[in-house]
């Protein structure tokens, strides 16, 4: 299926020597959409070993909230903590990163494919479209059958990050992950 | 509100951490953060009253989701406020243990929900204001406030689409819906004075480049509201002569009842956790 144009995902640069930690974070699922990892969602912003004078290096893991009121934020924090502790990084610091604010553009390509396979239409952001005009579009691609003959039922779906649609071709309802 | 056991590593940020404004600005910044945070918190609480009672399932979801966004903004702002105050009060202490005279929310948002149309009018007036305010705050010299605002403005755009769409549907609707929404507009318009009435808190922060000049936000708010009201075939009420003082802790009779319901559990069982 071809998804309409999207901006390049801003994947954070990975510090050499942290590959194993990124790998373990790739196994931390999003609580609401468990097929996606926190890395797929662009929630993990940095994984860095920082030298502290005279002391062993400290691991800093930066995570960013998606929506201001996302109730999964706490759970994600706890899941990342548990994953780091289980792997022995009990002294790692988990930092909340607020700037730049999370954007749906940070969803990885793998994340977008997984969303669609799970039955949630991934965000359709035309490259260069002014953000202030953005709203859940009148129609998006149906993740079940690929048709564009879909209709927006509600701007807010099961969660603030999603809108609700119905497909006129296959008649299935589905959620759409909104552009932010 | 806090689901994580230890406050030290809260996902909402350590109180006081982050790049904040110089020492001399802290008292004004604390009061300003309460104004913004309390406005979001009280409105979030009002919208929560609709859960299970909305006219349609989609509106139950819509209002609840907007409420969630607002409460999230309140958490970020109040956590920052507690850190600036420096007396060890976190977001929960500020939300659940203050009395009405200590709340600094805009008078508009504590007004009762009334019917769905009245809720929509209140929401649209506030959404249009938050849009201008957060847009301006995204370039605040205070980096943490700028981050919170940059995030909030994106969510507020969706809120405004929702509330203005409904304003148009109800205003340019049946005689019944039009009449109800016009009356609600006339009742709530008096509280819009306060949106742009600056005092020494906003003036001091304005000089420091931390907060925008409120009067500067009014022209765009007015033109946005004029366009929505015009499309909704509603008549803009005349300006109200009364200033309102919610920002200064002088509230209408409604806030006390709202806080009693919101704070009851925490005050009855202090320190209770899930």
Structural summary, described in words:
Chain A has 180 residues and is α/β, with parallel strands linked by helices. Chain A has two domains: 19-105, Fe-S cluster assembly (FSCA) (GMP Synthetase, Chain A, domain 3); 109-177, no CATH class. Chain A contains three helices and seven strands. Chain A has helices spanning 19-25, 72-86, 109-118, and strands at residues 44-52, 55-63, 93-96, 120-121, 150-154, 162-167, 173-177. Chain A has a four-stranded mixed beta sheet with strand order 4-7-6-5. A three-stranded mixed beta sheet of chain A has the order 1-2-3, covered by helices on one side. The radius of gyration of chain A is 18 Å and the shape is elongated. With 274 residues, chain B is mostly helical. Chain B has a single domain, classed as Ferritin, core subunit, four-helix bundle (Ferritin, Up-down Bundle), CATH 1.20.1260.10. Chain B is 61% helix and 0% strand. Chain B contains ten helices and no strands. In chain B, helix 1 (26-48) runs antiparallel to helix 2, helix 5 runs antiparallel to helix 6 (143-171) and helix 5 (116-137) packs antiparallel against helix 9 (214-231). The longest helix of chain B has 29 residues, at 57-85. Chain B is globular and about 55 Å long. At the A-B interface, helix 2 and strand 3 of A face helix 2 and helix 6 of B.
């Amino acid at each position: 299926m071809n998804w309409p144009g999207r901006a390049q995902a801003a994947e954070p640069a990975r510090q050499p020597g942290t590959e194993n930690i990124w790998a373990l974070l790739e196994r931390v699922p999003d609580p609401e959409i468990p097929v996606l990892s926190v890395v797929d969602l662009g929630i993990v912003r940095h994984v860095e070993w920082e030298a502290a004078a005279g002391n062993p290096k400290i691991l800093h893991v930066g995570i960013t909230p998606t929506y201001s009121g996302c109730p999964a934020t706490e759970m994600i924090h706890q899941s990342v903590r548990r994953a780091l502790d289980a792997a022995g990084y009990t002294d790692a610091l988990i930092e909340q990163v607020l700037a730049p604010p999370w954007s749906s553009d940070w969803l990885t390509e793998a994340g977008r494919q997984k969303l669609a396979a799970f039955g949630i239409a991934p965000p359709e952001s035309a490259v260069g479209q002014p953000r202030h005009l953005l709203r859940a579009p009148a129609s998006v691609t149906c993740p079940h059958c690929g048709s564009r003959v879909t209709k927006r039922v509600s701007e807010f779906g099961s969660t603030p990050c999603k809108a609700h649609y119905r497909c006129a071709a296959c008649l299935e309802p589905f959620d759409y992950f909104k552009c932010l | 509100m806090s689901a994580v056991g230890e406050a030290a590593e809260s996902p909402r940020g350590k109180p006081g951490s982050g790049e904040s404004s110089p020492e001399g600005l802290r008292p004004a910044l604390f009061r300003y953060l309460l104004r913004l945070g309390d406005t979001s918190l009280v409105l979030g609480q009002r919208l929560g009253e609709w859960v299970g009672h909305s006219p349609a399932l989609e509106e139950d979801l819509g209002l609840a989701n907007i409420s969630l966004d607002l409460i999230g903004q309140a958490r970020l702002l109040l956590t920052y406020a507690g850190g600036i105050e420096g007396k060890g009060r976190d977001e929960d202490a500020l939300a659940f243990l203050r009395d009405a005279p200590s709340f600094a929310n805009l008078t508009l948002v504590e007004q009762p929900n009334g019917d769905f149309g009245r809720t929509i009018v209140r929401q649209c007036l506030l959404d249009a204001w938050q849009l201008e305010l957060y847009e301006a705050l995204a370039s605040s010299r205070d980096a943490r406030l700028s981050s919170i605002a940059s995030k909030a403005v994106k969510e507020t755009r969706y809120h405004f689409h929702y509330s203005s769409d409904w304003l148009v549907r109800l205003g340019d609707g049946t005689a019944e819906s039009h009449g109800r929404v016009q009356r609600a507009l006339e009742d709530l318009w008096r509280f819009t004075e306060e949106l742009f009435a600056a005092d020494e808190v906003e003036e001091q922060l304005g000089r420091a480049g931390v907060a925008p000049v409120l009067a500067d936000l009014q022209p765009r708010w007015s033109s946005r509201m004029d366009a929505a009201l015009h499309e909704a075939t509603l008549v803009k009420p005349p300006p109200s002569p009364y200033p309102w003082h919610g920002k200064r802790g002088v509230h209408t009779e409604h806030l006390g009842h709202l806080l009693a319901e919101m704070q009851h559990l925490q005050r009855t069982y202090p320190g209770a956790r899930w």
